[in-house]
């Protein structure tokens, strides 16, 4: 059996009860934290809290060389962990399909994701989101400016009146996390006066949610990571009220329901 377990967003206690039970019953536990991580829990804290030993895998060890994980899962109960949900944004469908090809039973125990948390924290309705994008560090995509795949997706969503989640790049091995202010500065060159919302430390007891023009958000410090941005599209009147109450959005950016 290979069980994919989402750990949630914040610390060692963010896991669901079902996830905790499956984790403690596992014979072998592997995890990856190269695309996301728990804001307030170390590997040691996870191991101590759940009385387990975790084999941390890098990207190559999961995507190119998962044979030992699959071999163990043929005869043992194996748990595979990620922050958030293992099949949202950080997708491990390939690993699951490889297991199925070998006749290995699989299951998923979902965790809270940044995607759902962003909707809940901002008050933007989840069914009004379009395609999400990931904004890389400038050095990571080998070209100047923001990749056209990012800007094109934002433009396409806005034309349809849809919101865009902009995930921010993580280089876990270097302990490097793209900040919302830096991301806003990068996007402001194409969308200077566009309304955007920063969500920082979703899942923690003290998340930050702030809305303003990208050019204004670029001038602010939103504290410790993880951060993401939301670029709203057309706003429903309840979403306008939510951004006012929950994100301190400037009134002049909320005086229309048309995409900005």
From TrEMBL:
GO terms for molecular function: diphthine synthase activity. Keywords: Methyltransferase, S-adenosyl-L-methionine, Transferase. It catalyses: 2-[(3S)-amino-3-carboxypropyl]-L-histidyl-[translation elongation factor 2] + 3 S-adenosyl-L-methionine = diphthine-[translation elongation factor 2] + 3 S-adenosyl-L-homocysteine + 3 H(+). Residues 1-218 form the Tetrapyrrole methylase domain. The keyword Methyltransferase applies. SUPFAM superfamilies: Tetrapyrrole methylase (SSF53790). Its EC number is 2.1.1.98. The keyword Manganese does not apply. One of its GO terms (biological process) is methylation. Pathway: Protein modification; peptidyl-diphthamide biosynthesis. S-adenosyl-L-methionine binds at residues 9, 85, 88, 113-114, 168, 202, 227. InterPro entries: 4pyrrol_Mease, 4pyrrol_Methylase_sf, 4pyrrole_Mease_sub1, 4pyrrole_Mease_sub2, Dphthn_synthase. S-adenosyl-L-methionine-dependent methyltransferase that catalyzes the trimethylation of the amino group of the modified target histidine residue in translation elongation factor 2 (EF-2), to form an intermediate called diphthine. The three successive methylation reactions represent the second step of diphthamide biosynthesis. Homodimer. PANTHER family: DIPHTHINE METHYL ESTER SYNTHASE, DIPHTHINE SYNTHASE. Belongs to the diphthine synthase family. This is Diphthine synthase. It comes from Haloquadratum walsbyi J07HQW2.
């Amino acid at each position: 059996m290979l069980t994919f377990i989402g750990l949630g967003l914040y610390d060692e206690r963010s896991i669901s009860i079902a996830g905790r039970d499956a984790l403690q019953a596992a014979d072998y536990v592997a995890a990856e934290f190269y695309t996301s991580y728990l804001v307030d829990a170390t590997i040691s804290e996870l191991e101590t809290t759940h009385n387990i030993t975790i084999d941390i895998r890098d990207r190559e060890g999961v995507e190119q060389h998962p044979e030992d994980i699959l071999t163990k899962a043929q005869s043992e109960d194996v748990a595979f962990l990620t922050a958030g949900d293992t099949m949202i944004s950080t997708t491990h469908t390939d690993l699951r399909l490889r297991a199925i090809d070998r006749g290995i039973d699989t299951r998923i125990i979902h965790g809270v994701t940044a995607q759902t948390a962003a909707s809940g924290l901002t008050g933007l309705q989840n069914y009004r989101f379009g395609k999400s994008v990931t904004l890389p560090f400038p050095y990571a995509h080998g070209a100047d400016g923001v990749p056209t795949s990012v800007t094109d997706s934002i433009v396409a969503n806005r034309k349809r009146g849809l919101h865009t989640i902009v995930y921010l790049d993580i280089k876990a091995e270097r302990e490097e996390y793209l900040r919302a202010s830096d991301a806003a500065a990068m996007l402001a060159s194409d969308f200077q006066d566009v309304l955007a919302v920063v969500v920082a430390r979703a899942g923690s007891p003290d998340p930050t949610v702030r809305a303003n023009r990208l050019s204004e958000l670029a001038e602010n410090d939103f504290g410790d990571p993880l951060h993401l941005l939301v670029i709203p599209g057309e706003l429903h009147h309840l979403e306008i009220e939510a951004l006012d109450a929950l994100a301190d959005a400037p009134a002049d950016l909320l005086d229309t329901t048309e995409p900005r």
